[in-house]
Write a structure and sequence with these properties.
This protein is α/β, with parallel strands linked by helices. The protein folds into 3 domains: 2-122, no CATH class; 149-201; 203-397, 3-Layer(aba) Sandwich (Rossmann fold). The protein is 43% helix and 16% strand. It has 16 helices and 11 strands. It has helices spanning 2-19, 26-36, 42-57, 67-78, 84-89, 91-95, 101-111, 131-134, 137-143, 159-168, 203-217, 237-246, 258-271, 315-318, 321-338, 361-371, and strands spanning 150-154, 174-176, 179-182, 198-200, 227-230, 250-255, 276-280, 294-300, 342-352, 374-381, 391-397. α3 packs across α4 (67-78) and α4 runs antiparallel to α7. It is globular, with a radius of gyration of 23 Å. The chain starts with a helix and ends with a strand.
Length: 400
């Protein structure tokens, strides 16, 4: 009975992967499939989904193998404990389930010349990584075999309430500064009042606050708080971080999508951000009538998202050099079209969740060499050491 079920899981995962074209996030695709095929119970859905995600986590390292073998080997690489399905695939693998990723790769490579795994083939375009990440290339690559943690950021003054609620609910968690570390599948929706008490925000994203605070401290104080423009606001996570770090400020948020700004209004109200301005702005084009106004611009620019592919590993299969070129061009357009709104001597915070040099250091080089900005600090936030996303942050000052 179990053997038949596991074969069914494997064949269903193979079918899903073969038909998925990457045009929508995989979790939407697989949910749609299960809605249309209601015969699968919750355990079935969980196991099939896990097989698919394991396949994508192994990236392109097993591309020469047949699909079903790639899925089975990937399941071994990504499993952290023994189980019936892994034992069904290979009893020796099941006994080694608790081993580290390097040891597992050695086991596979020693078993057959046809299934040889090269670690540097897990992640696409690994020759284009930011240099500090390239120095840790193997560690970075292997991190994709594990699902990242879920992180919360405790809002100021809410820490004791949050910790009390989590302990009362029996939730297993760790604390690192203002960050709460949870297992990825932890449901806190009925325990914490999100956005009011805690913000769901990756650890590396939280650490961009260090750059934000340094930039804010460099602003010459005035009678009112600094004027801050979050020019690519998206879900508003960086605006909320700025609100908690800077406090007294006059905030403007913008995005090219009207729906984003509508969602922000609800989120800001809940988080206690009552006074702010919002505007639609397509920064791929020059803005009309722009004058130097802001003390600080936060530009969390659209990017490849390559530093977050541990959460969406299917992206590793569908990303192309053409897409990377499109993002790098867009980022320079956003920079060039936003900086006219920054006051002389103003602070510019450039952020990406990318690991590629073209989206990171090359963009800063553009600002320094062609726009005359002074670089104060930049760096890669290496989340792969903490089962978190990897980001890039830079703080610059505009010409006086």
């Amino acid at each position: 009975m179990l053997n038949g079920r596991f074969w069914s899981y494997l064949n269903t995962a193979k079918l899903l992967i073969e038909n998925y074209e990457g045009d929508i996030p995989f979790h939407h695709y697989i949910k749609q499939y299960f809605r249309e095929n209601s015969k699968y119970g919750s355990r079935d859905r969980k196991q099939i989904s896990a097989l698919c995600y394991s396949y994508y986590r192994a990236g392109r390292a097993l591309a020469a193998l047949p699909m079903d073998e790639r899925i089975r080997i990937s399941w071994f690489l990504c499993s952290d404990q023994p189980g019936d399905m892994l034992a069904f695939f290979n009893e020796d693998w099941n006994m080694a389930a608790g081993s580290g990723p390097r040891e597992k790769i050695n086991i596979i490579n020693a078993s057959s010349i046809d299934s040889h795994i090269r670690i540097d083939e897990i992640f696409p375009f690994s020759d284009r990584l930011s240099k500090p990440i390239a120095e840790d290339k193997e560690e970075f690559m292997l991190s994709h075999l594990q699902q990242p943690h879920l992180f919360l950021r405790m809002r100021p003054g809410r820490e004791s309430t949050i910790l009390y609620k989590l302990k009362k609910a029996g939730i297993i968690f760790e604390v690192s500064g203002s960050a709460i570390i949870l297992q990825n599948n932890t449901d806190i929706s009925s325990i914490l009042d999100t956005d009011r008490e805690a913000v769901v925000q990756d650890l590396s994203s939280q650490q961009t606050g260090d750059f934000m605070k340094e930039a804010a401290d460099a602003i010459v104080p005035g009678m009112k708080g600094p004027l801050v423009w979050d020019c690519c606001a998206a879900s508003g996570g960086k605006s909320l971080l700025a609100f908690d770090i800077i406090g007294n400020m006059e905030l403007t948020v913008s995005d090219v999508r009207k729906s984003i700004l509508e969602n922000l209004q609800e989120r800001f109200n809940k988080a206690g951000v009552k006074t702010y301005q919002s505007m639609m702005a397509d920064l791929s084009k020059p803005l009309k009538g722009v004058k130097p106004l802001y003390d600080m611009i936060i530009a969390d620019v659209p990017c490849s998202g390559s530093g977050t592919w541990g959460r969406t590993p299917e992206e590793m299969h569908f990303f192309s050099a053409e897409k990377l070129a499109e993002y790098t061009a867009l980022q320079k357009q956003i920079i060039a079209n936003s900086v006219p709104a920054l006051l002389p001597g103003g602070q510019f915070l450039y952020l990406t969740c990318s690991v590629y040099e073209e989206e990171n250091e090359a963009a800063i080089d553009f600002m320094v060499r062609q726009l005359g900005y002074r670089l104060n600090r930049m760096g890669n936030i290496k989340g792969y050491y903490h089962r978190a996303d990897t980001m890039f942050a830079a703080w610059l000052t505009s010409p006086a």
